[in-house]
Write a structure and sequence with these properties.
By secondary structure, this protein is mostly helical. The protein is built from two helices and two strands, in the order ββαα.
């Protein structure tokens, strides 16, 4: 590593690659974690009855296509 003007440190490509891999690993771990039920309940509550009825309309239209 080299010290650059202003007191910063210039990192080499190996350090940058290492940091990139570590960040990707952390983000991948977070994405693969399950969503807690309480959080899903809150999201469903925010969607409200309008979203639930829209889901029912979409589900019933899909069933009618299957019957034809």
């Amino acid at each position: 590593m080299q010290v650059i003007e202003g007191g910063g440190v210039k990192t080499g490509p190996n350090v940058k690659t290492y940091i990139e891999r570590q960040l990707k690993s952390v983000y991948d771990d977070v994405l693969n974690q399950p969503i807690p039920d309480r959080f899903l309940d809150l999201l469903n509550a925010l969607d409200g009855p309008a979203a639930a009825s829209a889901k029912n309309v979409g589900a019933s239209s899909g069933k009618s296509e299957d019957n034809e």
